[in-house]
Amino acid sequence: MNSHLISNEKGAFIVPIPHCYVWLTEGYHDCPKLFKEYVEGYVQSIGYQLIEIKGMDAICKK
After folding, report:
1. What pTM was computed for the model?
2. CA 48 to chain centre
3. Residue ranges making up the domain that contains 14
């Protein structure tokens, strides 16, 4: 499950964000907020905490 995670030099993990979250949030009145909520839920489900979003990567910590 965690084979797609990459640890950076600061010990944070880079988790690719599923592209479906882009089209799932299209047309929503507050698209960035909903996108962030989806990403937070996704990384929490695999045991991580979101630090920030960069492009289509979630920077996380354990």
Report:
1. 0.81
2. 10
3. 2-61
